[in-house]
């Protein structure tokens, strides 16, 4: 997308140093935005302003917000991308209280916490866009692979919808993007670990996953840049009348309507 439709906008992308987050950060910057990225550890190099933060730590979130306010005066676009699948498969009996809390802290509470601390400035300027990066797992849980993760993403979807309704008349739009299988480093590691545990080849593992999820009609994983294109559109002026919706980008894999 060769456009400068985000010129003058300030954007924060959490988990913005690799995978989908990096692709989003790069695309928003190419569209003219001033991009800030955050992650737990600093990458070897990034063209964007980097602030280290563990978003599951309330104190570090507060410090992140303070640095953003002090340096940039606030933000116009918030991409809540940080998250991931960190708990074991095997179903409900394998998951401890700590596992559930870990997944909720990472995939739900961290976004809620960051929204709460950054939204007052957006509301004050009567403009802003918040994107919550969810997953198709929020609508299609695989009990033996990602139960706690899927539940945390379903909760994020519900929270995002409620927040969008609350903020609709305050000039702030809230949207959810739900990628399906995407060719990122974490996804490929998940596939490798799954295959190693099952004692099967990557090709067999991919085939099994496709059978369990109903397959991908388009026949391939998404590329991170394709997800970034959707996010770019949603935060742009072209999407000014969109709020409260969940956008699946999954090659047609979700076997549900809506």
From TrEMBL:
Keywords: Oxidoreductase. PANTHER family: 3-OXOACYL-[ACYL-CARRIER-PROTEIN] REDUCTASE, SHORT-CHAIN DEHYDROGENASES/REDUCTASES FAMILY MEMBER. This is NAD(P)-dependent dehydrogenase (Short-subunit alcohol dehydrogenase family). The keyword Transmembrane does not apply. Belongs to the short-chain dehydrogenases/reductases (SDR) family. It comes from Mucilaginibacter oryzae. Residues 9-184 form the Ketoreductase domain. InterPro entries: KR_dom, NAD(P)-bd_dom_sf, Sc_DH/Rdtase_CS, SDR_fam. SUPFAM superfamilies: NAD(P)-binding Rossmann-fold domains. GO terms for molecular function: oxidoreductase activity, acting on the CH-OH group of donors, NAD or NADP as acceptor.
């Amino acid at each position: 997308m060769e456009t400068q439709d985000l010129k003058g906008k300030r954007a924060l992308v959490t988990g913005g140093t690799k995978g989908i987050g990096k692709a989003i950060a790069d695309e928003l910057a190419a569209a003219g935005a001033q991009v800030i990225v955050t992650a737990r550890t600093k990458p070897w190099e990034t063209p964007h302003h980097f602030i280290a933060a563990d978003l599951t730590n309330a104190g570090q979130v507060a410090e992140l917000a303070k640095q953003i306010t002090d340096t940039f005066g606030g933000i116009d676009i918030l991409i809540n991308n940080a998250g991931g699948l960190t708990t074991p498969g095997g179903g409900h009996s394998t998951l401890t209280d700590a596992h559930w809390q870990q997944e909720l802290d990472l995939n739900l509470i961290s976004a809620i916490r960051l929204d709460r601390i950054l939204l007052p400035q957006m509301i004050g300027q009567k403009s802003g866009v918040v994107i919550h990066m969810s997953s198709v797992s929020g609508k299609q849980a695989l009990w033996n692979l990602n139960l706690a993760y899927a539940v945390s993403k379903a909760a994020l979807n519900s929270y995002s919808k409620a927040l969008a309704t609350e903020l609709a008349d305050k000039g702030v739009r809230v949207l959810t993007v739900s990628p399906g299988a995407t060719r990122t480093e974490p996804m490929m590691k998940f596939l490798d670990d799954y295959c190693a545990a099952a004692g099967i080849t990557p090709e067999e593992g991919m085939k099994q996953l496709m059978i369990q999820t109903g397959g991908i009609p388009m026949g391939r994983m998404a590329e991170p840049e394709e997800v970034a294109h959707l996010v770019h559109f949603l935060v742009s002026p072209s999407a000014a009348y969109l709020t409260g919706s969940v956008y699946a980008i999954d090659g047609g894999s979700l076997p549900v309507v809506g």
